[in-house]
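User: Just a sanity check before I run the rest of the batch. Below are the structure tokens for the first item. I only need the designed sequence back.
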């Protein structure tokens, strides 16, 4: 199997007046072509309809390099979808635990919801000793371990994007996920969070179902 180097999340808005059967078919074809493109390991669709004004449709994309990620983004742009956010990063071990920040199986079955946001630490965080930072991250992990039904994707983009990390959480229960975030915000490390927005919440489903929600019924033949 191709080794995954990049996880990214593409979010699109359907331009006004283009929520049509023809546009739906263009997006369907683009998705199927993207899934077959060399270097693409997995591509999963999500509906954001009614959940965020800036996006109707999202894709979780895992590739072997950034070039494949860019090709997929370009292919969707040729459908006239408007790209409103692209959050991406590289897979690497944590400097605090030595372990990967990926606790999901890709390719594999997806949970019902995916919550994604960029993350930036404060400058003061990097002035702390490595031991202090490691202790805070262990406390962060301790809280997370009480929510074993929620999976994480954490990738790194320090110096190559406007954020330092991108984190995605898979869950079948959004209320339970909100409880996790509430608990994490009570930890000491929260003092060193500079930014963790915008937040994109999408619901996964088969491509046909997602496109139905975004574009409506198929054009009858």
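Assistant: Here's the designed sequence for the first item:
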């Amino acid at each position: 199997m191709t080794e995954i180097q990049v996880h990214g999340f593409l979010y699109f808005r359907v331009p006004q007046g283009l929520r049509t059967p023809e546009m739906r078919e263009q997006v369907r074809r683009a998705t199927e072509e993207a899934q077959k493109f060399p270097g693409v390991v997995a591509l999963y669709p999500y509906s954001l309809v009614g959940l965020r004004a800036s996006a109707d449709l999202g894709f979780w994309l895992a590739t072997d390099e950034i070039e494949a990620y860019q090709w997929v983004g370009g292919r969707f742009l040729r459908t006239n979808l408007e790209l409103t956010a692209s959050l991406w990063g590289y897979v690497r071990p944590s400097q605090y635990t030595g372990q990967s920040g990926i606790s999901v199986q890709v390719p594999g079955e997806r949970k019902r919801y995916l919550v994604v946001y960029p993350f930036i630490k404060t400058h003061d965080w990097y002035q702390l000793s490595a031991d202090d930072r490691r202790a805070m991250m262990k406390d962060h992990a301790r809280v997370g371990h009480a929510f074993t039904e929620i999976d994480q994707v954490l990738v790194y983009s320090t110096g190559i994007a406007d954020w330092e990390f991108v984190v995605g959480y898979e869950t079948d229960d959004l209320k339970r996920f909100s409880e996790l975030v509430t608990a994490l915000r009570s930890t000491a490390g929260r003092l060193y969070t500079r930014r963790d927005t915008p937040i994109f919440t999408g619901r996964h489903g088969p491509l046909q179902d997602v496109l139905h929600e975004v574009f409506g019924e198929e054009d009858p033949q």
